[in-house]
Sequence to fold (116 residues):
Amino acid sequence: MLTRLFFSFIATGILVMPGSAFTADPLLLSIQDNRFEPELLAVPAGVKLKLVIRNPGDLPVEFESTDLSREVIVRGHGEATIYVGPLDPGSYRFFNDFNREMQGTIVAKPDAGKED
Fold:
């Protein structure tokens, strides 16, 4: 039973460690044409996330989320990594504080990554 559960999590990109769960692969968020790409990230609830934000442009951006209590400046041609979670089910907004029209959402779903 435990082996089956472990392989189920591996197949969905989630690793189980004592006391916590986290995504095996980082989530990638890129800035393209003054937009976050993707604008919507669907993730499993109850999982710690490693989010890598890449900025291939010349101008810096400030990834900010009051919902996630995170903010970081990503310099031009650079990247930043933040960790969030485990997240309760729900929606978590983020934006570029230097250009508030650039917005996105992380949606944590209780059944994401589970098999029936």
Remarks:
- Residues 20-109 form a domain with the Immunoglobulin-like fold (CATH 2.60.40.420).
- The longest strand covers residues 99-109.
- The longest helix spans residues 2-11.
